Every structure is written in structure tokens, then in C-alpha cells.
Amino acid sequence: MSNTETHPAETVCGARTAEPPRPGVEVLSARSVPLGGPRAMTVRRTLPQRARTLIGAWCFADHYGPDDVARTGGMDVAPHPHTGLQTVSWLFSGEIEHRDSLGTHAFVRPGELNLMTGGHGISHSEVSTPRTTLLHGVQLWVALPERHRGAARDFQHHVPAPVPLDGGEARVFLGTLAGDTSPVRTFTPLLGAEVSVAPGAAVVLDVDAAFEHGVLVDTGDVRLDGTPLRPTELGYAAPGRTTLTLANEGPAAARLILLGGPPFQEEIIMWWNFIGRTHEDIAQARSDWTNTSRFGTVHGYDGPPLPAPTLPSVPLKPRRNPH
Description:
27 strands, 5% helix
């Protein structure tokens, strides 16, 4: 998926050192963003933002739907580039057709992970299929560490089996949780899972104390370690916890996305669909996309690629997360 804001803000995921556990949970609200250029659908973005730009290496989180495609037109994101990151596509309902410059032609379906690596450079398109009535899911990005920033193009697909929990169920698409480990390759330790919690139940998850964690609520009245989270909000828990408690106080099942990883130790600049370390990295990537080099060609999409926005008039500079 593309960060296709007309005037994308400079976004920097700042390096941080490990910090002691915090007594509470930080609650992050989403903002609405149009996605996909002239045929835009609206998504809710919780990462990045000034309050927190990274959770582990997770640096981008869009949450969308349930979107009635008969009314809105669904998703139609023309070919666009990526550098320095991996994209993670996860659906709750609907279906998306994916094409990329690696030659991949695949479909994103509920409960199935599609992970694309765009290190040195890749381009792709995403279009909801004609049989989709409700489109509902998340799009996530992972920042690549410096030594893997130029990684080759890659695409991985995985269908995680449901893992029963006391009071719920999990589908682990990245990393390890509740005794299940995803085979999907990443460049830093990560956790990514869909977790459901039964009405009135509380799920206690054993987690890595070196990880920081984020809980993005899709549906339900959820408490993360006692802190209430509403749908579309993301709760942040600092490193130091060995367990996370997810309580559902509502009358219906709750569904959420659990993210985690050790604090990312590098400063990175994110602008439009590019992740770099300097303004020059970003400017070069934009020039390469404009000049149709480096990113390859997406075959099979009916329409032109997305044009790159204009760079800001001042140099892009790294910033750290606020303390």
C-alpha cells in the first residue's frame, strides 16, 4: 500500500535506547488519510505520529474498513515505489489483487499474510477485486536496518493456523507467540499477530521483555493491562513487561492486531513511500522513480503509475521520538 498523501509530511523514526517499564499504557489516536491518489479511499493512520513513530521496527500502520466498495469504489492504488522497508498486508474481509515488479501476481485474503521486501527498490499495485463487497484490514510497514537497507526484492506468503488461547485465539503472522512461530523471514526480531478475545474474557500473553508492544484495536471494548482502548486506537507498552493482559469487557468478541519488537536503534527518515537515512537518500529515490529507473515495472495494471509528490523546500532531517 502507498502513503499517497498529496503533501506527505517528513516523518522520522528516531533511534531510542531501551527504557525501563512504564507504569501505564500510552494511547495513540488515529488520523484519517486519503489513500490512492485521485481514486482515494480513507484509512485511519496510527503510525507514524509525533507521539510515537516506531514500535520495534514497525513504522507505519494503516487501518481501514469495513468499507462498502459498492459505495466507495474500494481500493485502487496504482503502481508506486518503496525503498528501505517491508510491507505487511493483512485482511479481515475482502480481497486485494497484488502485482509487483518482481513479477508477483498474488491475492491478499483474510487470515493470509503477504509480505513484500522493497529494500533497494520495488514497485507494486493493489486493487480490491470485483467479488469484494466489504474491504477491511490493516497495512503495516517495517523499517529495514542499515545493513539490510539495500536488500533484494522479495515476496513471501504465509497462512498461519489459529492458535487457541485461554479466552480467545491468535493467528501469528510474524515472530513467536503462544508457542507458535511464523516461518516468514524478517531483518529484525518482530511480533505480529491477530488476536481475538471472547466476550467477558481476559487473555494473558507471555511476551519478550526486551520488546515494546502495540495493540491496535479493530473491534471491541478492550483493556490493555488495565488501560481502556477504543476501536481504531493503538495502545503502546514499553519494554520490561513479561506478560500482556487483554481484557474484553464488551458483549461481542474483540479483535486486535498485536505488534512488537525491540526498540529500533537507528534514526531513519520516512517520506512518501521511501525510507532513508539522509535527505539525499530520499531525493535520489524520488529522482529514480520519476526517471523510471531502479524500481522495475508492474505489468497487468490498467493505468499509469502514481507520480511522486514534490519534495519539501527544506532538507529532511532526522528527529528522535519525544521522551
